[in-house]
């Protein structure tokens, strides 16, 4: 949390500078020949695969929109910048994209600390920011800006769905482990609140927080988990952190299929690394390749046809992380088309309360907090053959959680605009 506080201070200074730089910035017009989206992601370092995945998803959505004639007859182009997973770098490079590259939109997925920084950029520059994968509740709460829209779930929705999934299983003694930054603490808070509502007979027998992205030895944490006699673990981690934790937990005695509930476990790099150790890991997410609607199956088919010969198996299927950027931007393009303009104020007015029939259900952009309200899906990683990857993958038994059951409550305590 100390690192996050320092980053927030840097962002505050940058915000004041940007207010001066962007004062009186003109509204967007359709004069340019190309519509530009500036994408900020960690394209290097330990979370590089996440950035690369979201870039492929965004580019697929853009390619499909361009095949339909783009927007208002103009081609859409994606410009990328490596934010290194750091809010000060993201702020500086977002300013570069806006001032030098003249982008019409900015977008990102990695890191709630990055999203909060980009909310401030969006406010100062009066530019639309699309967040397709940063989950912390406060991004659309106390850090709200009318120029930002979150086109993915949030900490509340993810963990409410995860708790509903846990409630359908026999496990009742849980240990929670999470990264030591803002999202980790939000996860812990929501999980405990939702368990009291949906699993009053369950208990959290221990909680630990570990340094994000730098923890190699989980032995001390796993020793405590084993000593607690927990019959399941909730791991609010992702990427290499989740790989290292699950692998070491299995090696130390929590053998598969000992249940691990990890909402962000549906990344093929993670499961390919873990192989059979991933069996018994549960997930809850707003997208699954396993959702059997004609629209989803057709989108999966189109994506795979375009990417089936990729050397990197990560980009061969539109799995959960990749789909966040695809679906979020498809919804955004639909809202912009309805607005009939690139003017941020007109887009805001149209996007608020906008509804879009996604391949996996109806998505609604709530007016008060610019948070998309959507159904969630849960399941488990299973061994044996599957139609997607040559390693354990999400099984076919997908549980749907309706949007109204998992939506974060629209209260003024969360966001003063919500009543």
Keywords:
single chain; 419 residues; alpha/beta; Rossmann fold; eight-stranded mixed sheet; five-stranded parallel sheet; 13 helices; 41% helix; disordered N terminus
At a glance:
With 419 residues, the chain is of the alpha/beta class.
User: What is the count of DSSP helices, taking H or I runs of 4+ residues?
Assistant: 13
Q: Tell me about the biggest sheet?
A: 8 strands, mixed
Sequence stretches where pLDDT stays below 50 over 5 or more residues? 1-27
Give a count of the beta strands, DSSP E runs of length 2 or more. 16
Structural class category: alpha/beta
Helix content range of the residues, please?
Answer: 40-55%
The arrangement of helices and strands along the chain is HEHEHEHEEHEHEHEHEHEHHHEEEEEEH
Q: Quote the average pLDDT.
A: 92
**Gyration radius, in Å:** 21 Å
Report the CATH superfamily of the domain at 156-285.
Response regulator
- Strand content bin: 15-25%
Overall form: globular
**CATH T-level fold name of the domain at 156-285:** Rossmann fold
CATH class of the domain at 156-285: Alpha Beta
Please tell me the CATH architecture of the domain at 156-285 by its name.
3-Layer(aba) Sandwich
Question: CA-to-CA gap between the ends?
Answer: 30 Å
Please specify the SSE layout and strand pairing.
Elements: H1 2-21, E1 34-41, H2 48-67, E2 75-82, H3 87-99, E3 105-108, H4 112-125, E4 128-131, E5 148-150, H5 155-167, E6 173-179, H6 182-198, E7 203-210, H7 219-227, E8 232-235, H8 239-251, E9 260-261, H9 268-274, E10 281-285, H10 294-307, H11 320-339, H12 344-351, E11 355-358, E12 361-365, E13 372-373, E14 376-382, E15 393-394, E16 399-401, H13 403-406
Parallel strand pairs: 1-2, 1-3, 3-4, 4-5, 6-7, 6-8, 8-9, 9-10
Antiparallel strand pairs: 10-14, 11-12, 12-13, 14-15, 14-16
